[in-house]
Design goal:
The structure is a homodimer of 360-residue chains. Chain A is built from eight helices and 19 strands. With 360 residues, chain A is an alpha+beta fold. Chain A has two domains: 162 residues, D-amino Acid Aminotransferase, Chain A, domain 1; 166 residues, Alpha-Beta Barrel (D-amino Acid Aminotransferase, Chain A, domain 2), CATH 3.20.10. Chains A, B: Pfam families: Aminotran_4. Chains A, B: This is Branched-chain-amino-acid aminotransferase.
Chain lengths: 360, 360
């Protein structure tokens, strides 16, 4: 793939930025966005940064009808000294291409995507909030745009990146959530699209979330789609269990999203010499561990919350209280370490962070 | 729901209509479209027929990210005398609302939708082709439009109907197709979205279609998502087997789309006193029936092809030839009867067709 000249068209009027304290998730967007087109003849072409603006699409555009789309989510952090850091962005672009492969979408040059993203962030750098816990959420995504109703991969796409300043996930300190173990609805089955970050996986979960809310729980714990027996993931996070001093997380079964925070947590635990296992974990085993007193901590991992401690699990008639509904020591340590690395407050022995300034 | 005044804004310049012989599926669209908006405060509001035109949506519109969308597909036929018929349209709007329920989308008044559709077709009536086998394909769909990235049901939607004149499915007479029995990829699992007509189910199938094509077969036969043992559906059609004079089709397992042509075929067969059974059918059973000579016919049913005879099935090492790769007598009879009713060439003892003129 040849490097194409990036066209930059800046906005003439900048939007008013929301107060850091008023930020919500994914509600405000910055002044600019990145966009690039694809056709069978040209491949990916015409990369450009333009003022944030509506898309104009034919009502027959395939994304509306057959859902051929993939996305990513990552964050940029600005530290006190003004430096800007991304957390393992190359992992996100690698996963975007893996998702695209499952959805029959043409891949994009990963290094080039990162270069475009950096340029976009430089232009909208003033939008990155600095209050503790805040960040700039980055949403790269691809949509199928060919205006025809035949059920087949699209011959045209748009790749875009939009940016949204987001508030602290934990406004009043890190706190455990309750989760509802879903035993009716299915998130994903082997051979399906569960490992891909694609739109259809997310709307399919709304019904289960309704049930969780009706049962006074914050999120859903998904079981496997075949037997409803093995633990898969929490809401849109991966899940970890601390059992008798060891950490266990569901293995990549073919229907679980390969989280980048999940991967980082595993690497961190190994570096701390804490035993960590990726394997099949049945919900029955968790109930037993709770009864025998070996279930020490449960937490979710994901880009939004980083670490989300679980204080309670509700599965059928079983109500499991974890660590007295308090944030466990390991959850806290992981949260502090990971967010420290992400924001630049702590050293980064793994070389996970990418500083925007390093290449200016 | 109160009836709202339908606003009609006609186009000033009509597009040139394609030749009937040059029609493809879902490529050309008529001069007008129907659109209506939804907000939590107003419900569905502002129904209008306007010139066919691009949609303008925020790049953060939820449909691009979380796939909350449902659709339908049905056809209008124009007969020699100029009368226009719809085939069981109330079934489509009922199913649209069922799909919407699974996807947490607010329902639409079914009778009102049908009234809007009729008005739209009246305005674009000249677009309905009359050559044998041609029709006007109708695509009603709903998309989530709220511009925010939180993973939750949208608070805003658009409901639209677009129309596309389509050519004959069988240009050279009804002909059997070969199908590839997919044993790796999964279309749907119990508890998933398989019974809903939603975008994510369709793009998820592209990889399997690639494998079918690579194996020189026209379409995919899906097996159940749990054991890859039981037959579910063909491509985007339901599937029927004639075994020893009886007709068998997979029961509605919770992961199969409830086809309207499927339902009509079952009702037709019953009216002809041909035994028809809805039940679990394993692919092993079909292999055995082929060996013992009791597999007489296989056919798919759907809006596009109406009846699609299957001449060959490829499953692992088994190659099953059905009825000497020729269209069976029952497939032909069903095709003739159903298309006859749809176009008005035959009597409609079931009251399935809705004539536009009846209410003018």
């Amino acid at each position: 793939m040849t490097t194409q000249k990036l066209e930059i068209m800046k906005c003439t009027h900048k939007k008013q930025k929301p107060e850091s304290s008023a930020l919500e998730f994914g509600k405000y967007f910055t002044d600019h966005m990145f966009i690039m087109d694809y056709s069978e003849e040209k491949g990916w072409y015409s990369p450009r940064i333009i003022p944030y603006q509506p898309l104009t699409l034919d009502p027959a555009a395939m994304v509306f009808h057959y859902g051929q789309t993939v996305f990513e989510g990552l964050k940029a952090y600005r530290s006190e000294d003004g430096s800007v850091r991304l957390f393992r962005p190359e992992e996100n672009f690698k996963r975007l291409n893996q998702s695209s492969d499952r959805l029959s979408i043409p891949p994009i040059d990963e290094a080039q995507m990162l270069a475009y993203l950096k340029e976009l962030i430089r232009i909208d750098k003033d939008w990155i909030p600095t209050m503790p816990g805040t960040s700039l959420y980055i949403r790269p995504f691809v949509i199928a745009t060919e205006p025809t109703l035949g059920v087949a991969p699209s011959r045209n796409y748009k790749f875009m990146i939009i940016l949204s300043p987001v508030g602290a996930y934990y406004k009043e300190g890190i706190n455990p959530i309750g989760i509802f173990v879903e035993d009716q609805y299915t998130r994903a089955a082997p051979g399906g699209t569960g490992t891909a970050k694609t739109a259809g996986n997310y709307c399919a979960a709304y019904k289960a979330q309704e049930r969780a809310t009706a049962n006074k729980q914050a999120q859903v714990l998904w079981l496997d789609g075949m037997e409803k027996k093995y633990v898969e993931e929490v809401g849109s996070m991966n899940v970890f269990f601390k059992l008798n001093g060891e950490v266990h997380t569901p293995g990549l079964s073919g229907s679980i999203l390969e989280g980048i925070t999940r991967k980082s947590v595993i690497e961190l635990l190994k570096s701390w010499d804490i035993p960590v296992f990726e394997r099949r974990i049945s919900i029955e085993e968790i109930v037993s561990a709770s009864k025998s007193g070996t279930l020490e901590e449960v937490f979710g991992t994901g880009t939004a919350a980083v670490i989300s401690p679980v204080g309670e699990l509700l599965w059928k008639d079983h109500k499991i209280v974890v660590n007295n509904n308090e944030t466990g020591a390991l959850s806290k340590r992981l949260y502090t370490e990971l967010t420290g690395i992400q924001t630049g407050e702590q050293k980064d022995p793994f070389g996970w962070t990418v500083r925007l300034e390093d290449e200016e």
